[in-house]
Amino acid sequence: MSQNIKDVMDIRDVKIKDLTANPAPLGLMGFGMTTVLLNIHNAGFYPMDAMILSMGFFYGGLAQVIAGIEEWKKGNTFGATAFTSYGLFWLTLVGIVLLPKLGDNFSGLAHSSTSFAAYLFMWGLFTLYMFVGTLKASRALQVVFLTLTILFFLLAAGNYLGSAAILRVAGFEGILTGLSAIYTAMGQVLNESYGKKMIPL
User: How far apart are CA 140 and CA 185, in angstroms?
Assistant: First the structure.
């Protein structure tokens, strides 16, 4: 009996090494590239079109949800919450744009500027709390979440006030936000690939 107990204790002391890849760059790239493309639209350079919606659905949406599930498997609560949430943000945004266009039965679902501002404000509040969570992380990640917080609040204000000027400013700030995420993703990929600090984070 005592030998069996010892065997059980030995099994409990086994440590499993995680050899799976880091999912964060996928999530950051999905977020970053889609954010840049959407905010080029917000800055007034081209209209909302199928390119933005497709990126929002597949890369900003599905890729981030996948990255979030992978972070959950790694035991990373912050990464799982962030990537899954922002992936679903992109999917809901695509839904907000597309649902009113699906026919007469959905035509009454078009959002008002006030409801859309409330939607963006809540995402800004969520991102502000997540930014606090980055204060123990890398500076690069702090920049991503700080600029994203500012972006959501600018978009909320622009929609609530009906201000094209604020929305245009938000567009340029959003391009910066997306580029900071792309920078962070590429830093993680290249630093791991070369086994040394190629890009400071």
Answer: 10
Tens-place pLDDT, residues 146-159: 999 999 999 999 99
* H or E stretch at 182: helix 164-194
Give residue for tokens 């790239």: 29
Cα(57)–Cα(62) distance, rounded to whole angstroms? 6
Q: Give residue limits of the domains in the chain.
A: 23-194
Which amino acid makes up residue 124?
G
- Give yes or no for a contact between 54 and 38, defined as CB atoms under 8 angstroms apart: no
**8 A C-beta contact, residue 92 and residue 124:** no
- Full-model pTM: 0.87
pLDDT bucket at 142, cuts 50 / 70 / 90 = very high
CB 195 within 8 A of CB 149: no
